[in-house]
Amino acid sequence: MITLDDMSKVSECSVTGCAYNQSDACHAGAVTIAGGSGHAGCATFIPLTVKGGFEAAAAAVGACQHLECAHNTDLECAAPAIQVGLRGAANADCLTYAES
User: Fold this and answer.
1) Contact by Cβ (8 Å): 27, 66
2) Which residues contact 56 (CB under 8 A, 6 or more apart)?
3) Per-position b or e across 4-23, b if 16+ CB within 10 A of its CB
4) Taking Cα atoms as reference points, which of 1, 36, 37, 17 lies closest to residue 84?
5) Cα–Cα distance list, 95 to 56, 82, 86, 89, 92 (Å)
């Protein structure tokens, strides 16, 4: 049985404009990785100045919609951890994404 402790963690988030980002750490309970082919966007990204989430949270990857990612197993992330950052001017993306 998989538990929350087994889920891939968000080890770093450099998207400072996200409401869940505090000191380069994601404080959402879980993130969803979505977007079109070749664009593994963080669907949890919220561009607000107010900060949210759980103070003690170490965010995990709740779902990954990228079947073509080498780390995707049954729509779950199998990477030990991911990094979220800007790819391009404004896209909060999973930088760990690797096309299989």
Assistant:
1) no
2) none
3) eeebbbbbebebeebbbbbe
4) 17
5) 23, 7, 8, 14, 9
Say if CB 19 and CB 52 are below 8 A apart: yes
3-class secondary structure, 6? helix
For residues 30 and 27, give the distance between their C-alpha atoms in angstroms, rounded to a whole number. 8
Q: How far apart are CA 43 and CA 58, in angstroms?
A: 17
Q: What is the pTM of this model?
A: 0.90
DSSP 14-42: --TTSTTEETTEE-SSEEEEE-STT--EE
Give 55-71 pLDDT, tens digit per residue.
888 899 999 999 999 99
